[in-house]
Design goal:
The protein is an alpha/beta fold and 397 residues long. The relative contact order is 0.17. It has helices at residues 12-23, 48-56, 60-66, 91-97, 106-120, 165-171, 245-250, 257-264, 293-296, 305-322, 327-356, 366-374, 377-388; strands at residues 5-8, 28-31, 43-46, 72-77, 83-88, 102-105, 125-126, 131-137, 140-145, 150-153, 155-158, 177-189, 202-207, 210-217, 222-230, 240-242, 270-276, 284-285, 288-290. The protein is globular, with a radius of gyration of 21 Å. The chain contains 13 helices and 19 strands. The strands form four sheets. It has an eight-stranded mixed beta sheet with strand order 5-4-13-14-15-12-17-16. A six-stranded mixed beta sheet has the order 7-2-1-11-19-18, sandwiched between helices. A three-stranded antiparallel beta sheet has the order 8-9-10. The protein starts with a strand and ends in a 9-residue tail after the last helix. It has a domain at 4-70 and 101-175 and 278-351: 3-Layer(bba) Sandwich (FAD/NAD(P)-binding domain). The chain binds flavin-adenine dinucleotide. Flavin-adenine dinucleotide (FAD) binds next to α1, β3, β12, β17 and α9.
Length: 397
């Protein structure tokens, strides 16, 4: 039996789930609050554990045509620019994990997912369709949309992001909180950068209280820039605001000139408040469940939020296929499979904040010792191998 599935939210997680369900023969309707399909003008890194399910969903060629594949990742010290190797990707990711490590322009990844879901069914995504309330009984679920219409299905998946309405209405009345970190985000056209900053590498600059990440997008046409700072308060009502290049550069006063060159080359920088929630013990009620940021919003310091959303959707589709005659049980199996891993990511990302922004990085001499101790190959492997090696098809459902 194939339950009819309603997905709230056409972000990366909702679309990956919809595609995984379509591929297994489910009737899926995605409802999206926005009136057009779009993504943030920024980049996303996808490690092998996230690329694996996307390839399995038939997206290999589409991804290869839009992705960058950095050769590796480097660690640079905020003031001196001293460089350490963190990871090798490229052939090393293929050899170790069977799949590449990609960096993508989010809008490109989103478009690939939208096209694939619409190829599955042209009307699978309904826009201007904000879920405002949800209800369920033994026979099914109902979602009330902002225009008053009511949609019925057998299962509802809340993939509606960190400010999830499905979570609030069906699972828990709690609010995300400001993490104490803000992020400058934007892209840089490659031609604005000197040759030395156009290397096909991901770079993490780390310093006391702040860090900067940059990596290539669109096969090197663009570079992504993320600059994270600790702030006591977030003054804006909204959780994102357009800023200026000058403000962004000023926030990295005293940093290496390469960081200033990167920030000064940004197209349109936006400042984001990073929101977090405590990991939940339960994100499922009967025929309603959550995935992605709605279930386990995380600081982005392991670059795994979207990856977890993709894994969630794929594993959920497998659970519904296996236990389709009992959707509530299928959702419990899904949650049980996903909760420990996603909690570990949320906690690991919070721990990385302390490593990336460690005060010891501010003291010459001490900083080098700290990096050698905390970021040597053995420690990096301990912290990341379990993440990258996860196989969505191997977890027993
Ligand atoms: P979202 O992307 O938030 O999508 C939710 C969708 O639901 C949206 O389209 C929204 O409009 C819609 N919606 C909301 N409410 C409703 C409603 N009531 N009804 C209907 N629709 C609704 N992750 C990585 O894996 N790698 C990275 O490199 C990475 N870098 C990051 C860098 C930064 C600075 C940040 C902030 C995050 C980063 N992440 C990264 C995390 C990643 O962006 C998120 O985890 C991911 O986008 C979550 O996807 P989602 O589909 O769960 O939610």
């Amino acid at each position: 039996m194939r339950p009819k599935v309603l997905v709230a939210g056409a972000g990366i997680g909702g679309l990956a789930a919809a595609l995984a369900l379509q591929k297994r023969g489910f009737d899926v309707q995605v409802v999206e609050r926005a009136n057009e399909l779009r993504e943030v003008g920024a980049g996303v890194q996808l490690s092998a554990n996230a690329v694996r399910p996307l390839y399995r969903l038939g997206l290999e060629q589409a991804l290869l045509s839009i992705a960058s594949e950095p050769a590796g990742k480097r660690f640079r010290l905020w003031n001196t620019g001293q460089t350490w190797k963190l990871f090798d990707f490229g052939a090393a990711s293929l050899a170790q994990y069977g799949f590449p490590y990609f960096t993508l322009y989010r809008a490109d990844l989103h478009r690939v997912l939208v096209d694939a879901v619409r190829a599955g069914h042209p009307d699978a995504i309904r826009l201007n369709a904000a879920v405002v309330d949800v209800a369920q009984d033994a026979r099914g679920v109902r979602a009330v949309l902002a225009d008053g219409s009511v949609l019925e299905a057998d299962v509802l998946i809340g993939a509606d992001g960190v400010h999830s309405v499905v979570r609030e209405k069906a699972i828990a009345i709690d609010k995300p909180r400001f993490s104490g970190c803000v992020a400058w985000r934007g892209v840089i056209p490659a031609e604005r950068l000197p040759e030395r900053l156009r290397e096909p590498l991901g770079v993490n600059w780390m310093g006391p209280g702040s860090h900067v990440v940059h990596y290539p997008l669109r096969r090197g046409e663009l570079f992504n820039f993320v600059g994270i700072l600790e702030k006591d308060v977030w003054p804006e009502e909204s959780w994102t605001a357009q800023g200026t290049v000058e403000e962004c550069v000023a926030d990295f006063e005293g940093w290496h000139p390469d960081v200033h060159t990167l920030a000064a080359s940004l197209q349109t920088p936006f400042l984001w408040a990073l929101m977090v929630r405590e990991p939940m013990h339960n994100w499922t009620d009967g025929r309603i469940t959550l995935l992605g940021d709605a279930a386990h919003a995380t600081l982005p310091f392991m670059s795994q939020g979207a990856a977890m959303a993709i894994e969630d959707g794929y594993v959920l589709a497998r659970c519904l296929e296996r236990h389709g005659d009992d959707p509530a049980h299928a959702l419990q199996v899904y949650q049980a499979l996903r909760i420990e891993r996603t909690t570990r990511i949320v906690r690991g990302s919070a721990d990385n904040l302390k490593r990336f922004h460690n005060p010891l990085l501010g003291t010459p001499g001490v900083a080098e010792d700290y990096v050698n101790r905390e970021w040597n190959a053995e420690r990096v492997n301990e912290r990341y191998d379990w993440v990258f090696s996860y196989d969505v098809d191997a977890v027993p459902v």
